Amino acid sequence: MLVEMMQIMSNERIAKGTYEMVLAGEIPHLIEESGQFIHIKLNDESLPLRRPISIAAYHENELRILYKLVGKGTEKLSELKKGDSLDVLGPLGNGFKLDNHLENKKVLLVGAGIGIAPLYQLACDLQKYQVDLDIIMSFKSKDEVYYLEEFKKLGNVYLSTDDGTCGKRGYCKDVIEDLGSDYDYVYACGPLIVLKFVKEYFVDLDHVYLSLEQRMACGMGACYACDTKDKKKRICKDGPVFNGKEVSL
Amino acid sequence: MSRLAVKLPGLDLKNPIMPASGCFGFGEEFAELYDLSLLGGVIAKAVTLDERVGNPLPRVCETSSGMLNAIGLKNPGFEEIVREKYPFLSQFDTAIIANVAGSSEDEYVEICKRLSDNEMIDAIELNISCPNVDQGGMAFGTDPIVAARLTAKVKAVCTKPIYVKLTPNVSDIVEIAKAVEEAGADGISMINTLTAMRIDLHTRKPILGNKTGGLSGAAIFPLAIRMIYEVSRNVKIPIIGMGGVSSADDALEMIMAGASAVAVGTANLYDPYICPKIIEELPKRMDELGIESIESLIKGGKHD
Q: Taking the CA of residue B267 as centre, how many other CA atoms within 13 Å lie in the half-sphere pointing to its CB?
C-alpha cells in the first residue's frame, strides 16, 4: 500500500447521484485482485476521515471507482475535475480470490445499488475461466441504473428495480429466488439485507463470497474500528471479502 | 543533545513526538510504511488482563474537524501483548510506553505489577480516562480521591515511571492532576477524548453502537491547550500533551502551553505519515519561530 496524490483523469455523473472517477498513479500497479478498495482523503479540514471506496476496474496505471452521493465527502468528491489531484491510500483489503477451480463452473454475481461496482472487475476477471455467468443488478429505479451494457458484455444480466421502471419489478431477493440456487460460486456486494439473504439462501454452498462494509478510520487494520459483527475479523484488513461460512452478519 | 531531544522520567526521547494510544495499534501496520525508529516513542494500544473484543459496531464516525470513537479498549489481552506485541515494538530504537487499562483497581495493579520488571517497557500510561467502557476507564479518572488512590496503589507495586492519563470530562481537571501528583505520579498524560454523540438522520438513533463515543481531532485542540496550560501551572511533574495535534505548529503550541512531549493520535488515522512529517518539519519551524531547542522551549515556559 501507498499514500499517493493520484491524478484525476475523469469524473463523470453516470446515473442519478452516481459518479465514475478514473485515477492515474502508482497504486493501480499494486492492486492484486478485484474487490480491493482505496481510502480517499478530501482536501477539507472539516472532513478529516478518509472514505473507503471499492475499485470497480483497474488496468496498468489507472483505476476506476464508482461512488454515490451519500454525504459531505462524496459531494465534495463529485466537484473535483480532470487534472485535479486526490490523496489516496491503497490498495487495501483482501478481494475476490480466483483460481482454476472456477473453470466452466456456474457462477452468480449479486449486486445491488453501488455494491455492483466491485463486481465489474470481478466479472471481467471471470471471463478467462469460461464460466457460465449470471449477473443480478438491482436498483431502486431506472434513473439509478448504470453499467447495464458493460455487464451485458460479460454475462447474462438479470435487472430489477424496486419500482419496476426498468427490468423486473422487485427486490434483489426476488431475482435470486427466480434464478434458483443451482450455482457453484456466488459473489455478492450490496446492502447488508442483501448479503444476509444471499448467505441464508445459499447456506449449503461452500463458495459464497460476500463483500462487507463498515465505518472505518485508518483502513489499514491498526485502529480496530471496523470489526465484523462477531468482532473476530477486521473488515479493512481481513476483508472486505469473506467466505459466507466464515463470517457473521 | 540534539535540538529535538527531550528527557522525561523513564523516557530519553530523541524527539518529542509519539503516536497516542489506540491510534497506532502495536505498530505492526504502520511499520510497513516507515521505520518506527524515527519516532520519539510509541504509546501502545491499551492492555487489559484478559482479551477484550470491543464495543458493538459502528465504532467510529466523523464529526466536523474530528471524529468519534467507541472502540471499547479492544486488545488481545496481557499474555499475547507481552509475548508478541511489545517484542515487536522493541526491535525499533524508540521508547515504548505501555497504556494500562482495567475494570477494577485490582486489574490495574496486577498489570503494573507484572510490567514492573519488563525490560521492553520504558514507562506506563495509566488509562483512567477511557469514556467507552462500562466498568473502569473514566470512572476512575473523574474522582480525584479514586484517581489518587489508584495511582498510589500502582506506584507501590511498579518501578516504572507512571504517567496518569487524564479525562477532560470533569469540572476541574486541575484538581485531578494535583491529586495524582500528590499520590506519586511521575507525569501526566492529557487529554483523553470528550464524551460526545451523533445521530443518524434516517434511523433517528445514535450512529455509534455504543451510543456515545470519544471526540478527538482538531476540534478538541483548543480545549487540550487550555487544560494543559492550567494543569502545567499547578503541578511540577511533566505533561505528555495530546488532543488534536496535526502539525509541527500544533506540537510547538502544545509545548508552549506546558507540555514536555506531544502525542499525536487521530491524525495518524487519516495521514499515516503524520508523525515522521511533524518530526521532519519541527527544525524548520523552530528556526522560523526563534526556538533554539525543545528543551529550551520547555524550560522557557510557565513564568506566569
A: 27
Contacts of A214 in chain B (CB under 8 A): 57-58
B130 given a catalytic annotation = yes
Per the CB < 8 Å rule, is B273 touching A3?
A: yes
- Rounded Cα gap, residues B153 and B52, in angstroms: 24
Q: What angle do CA A242, A246, A249 make, to 5 degrees?
A: 75
Task: Quote the strand ranges of chain B, DSSP E.
Answer: 6-8, 11-13, 17-19, 41-43, 60-63, 66-69, 95-100, 123-127, 162-165, 187-190, 194-196, 213-216, 239-242, 261-264
Q: Which alpha helices (DSSP H) does chain A contain, by range? A: 27-30, 72-78, 117-126, 148-152, 172-179, 192-201
- Across the interface, of B33, B54, B67, the residue whose CB is closest to A49 is B67
Q: Tens of pLDDT along A159-213? A: 999 999 999 999 999 999 999 999 999 999 999 999 999 999 999 999 999 999 9
Bridge partners, residue B67, by sequence: B62, B216
Q: Shortest CA distance to A219 belongs to which of A200, A232, A238? A: A238
How far apart are alpha carbons A53 and A20 in whole angstroms?
A: 11
Q: Are B171 and B141 in contact (CB under 8 A)?
A: no
Whole-prediction pTM: 0.97
B64 touches chain A (CB under 8 A): yes
Q: In a 3-state reduction of DSSP, which class is residue A206?
A: coil
Contact (CB, 8 A) for A197 and A172: yes
Contact B25 A216 (CB under 8 A): no
Catalytic residue among B23, B130, B158, B275: B130
C-alpha B150/C-alpha A234 separation (Å) is 34
Distances in whole angstroms, Cα of residue A27 to Cα of each of A3, A91, B112, B165 = 8, 6, 44, 39
Across residues A118-126, what is the average pLDDT? Answer: 98
**Environment class of A225 (CB within 10 Å of its CB; exposed 0-12, middle 13-18, buried 19+):** buried
Cell numbers that stand for A72 in this block: 459531505
Q: Is B123 helix (H, G, I), strand (E, B) or coil?
A: strand
Nearest CA in chain B to A4: B271
Rounded CA-CA distance A34/A98 in Å is 9
Residue B111 C-alpha cell reads as: 498489570
Burial B6-25 (b: 16+ CB within 10 A, else e): bebebbebbbbbbbbbbbbb
Nearest to B65 among A48, A89, A221 (CB): A48
Q: Does A49 touch chain B (CB under 8 A)?
A: yes
Which ipTM score applies to this complex? Answer: 0.96
> Residue type at B247?
S
For A197, what's the count of Cα atoms within 13 Å in the CB-facing half-sphere?
A: 19
